[in-house]
Amino acid sequence: MNKFQEIRPIVLGIAIRNGKLLVGEGFDTVKKQTFYRCLGGGIEFLEKSTDALRREFKEEIGSTITIKEFLGTSENIFTYQGKSAHEIVFYYAVDIPNEDYQEEYHILDEGKNSIAKWIDIKDFKDGKKILYPEEVFQYI
Fold first, then answer.
1. Average pLDDT over residues 102-123
2. Pick from 139, 121, 127: nearest CA to 17
3. How confident is the model at residue 108 (pLDDT cuts 50, 70, 90)?
4. Which residues contact residue 90 at a Cβ distance below 8 angstroms, ignoring those fewer than 6 apart?
5. DSSP reduced 3-state for 115
6. Is the CB of residue 90 less than 8 Å from the CB of residue 70?
7. What is the residue-averaged pLDDT of the chain?
8. More confident residue, 59 or 4
9. How many CB atoms lie within 10 A of CB 98?
């Protein structure tokens, strides 16, 4: 699937601990902007969204999450690296087991290194840090 030419179904896990949200850090070189997004990713053909979410967390941070509840969906049309994209997003509340907890995780995804970390939700709500997609704010 070419994520810049098709509508892409994705799933994101909203993990909150002590007023902080677990997010992956991204950088758009065209916009010259650092941004954050909850962890998750694409749903594969014949894969349920919950199975995709468990797989993504296992691949990204090595954690076997607990899915608490389905929160909702949104449609996200955006521009990244100068290209238009379109996603249907499923949101779930999730828990990270205590034994898997780290302040920061190193992620290798699609051959790119990145980090995930816990950031104070207040920083997003106050506009100090950018969180995408904006619809996630109704769940945090």
1. 90
2. 121
3. confident
4. 9, 10, 11, 12, 43, 49, 53, 70, 73
5. strand
6. yes
7. 94
8. 59
9. 7
DSSP assigned state of 29: T
Domain ranges of the chain: 7-139
Q: How far apart are CA 136 and CA 51, in angstroms?
A: 20
CB within 8 Å of 43: residues ≥ 6 apart: 9, 10, 11, 49, 52, 90
Distance CA 72, CA 74 (A): 7
Assigned CATH class of 7-139: alpha beta
Q: What is the dihedral of CA 48, 131, 57, 26, to 10 degrees?
A: 120
Burial of 107 (0-12, 13-18, 19+ CB in 10 A): middle
Instruction: State yes or no: pLDDT of 1 exceeds 80.
Output: no
pLDDT digits (tens, 9 = 90+) for 11-49: 999 999 999 999 999 999 999 999 999 999 999 999 999
At position 122, the amino acid (one-letter code) is K
Predicted local distance difference test score (pLDDT) of residue 4: 66
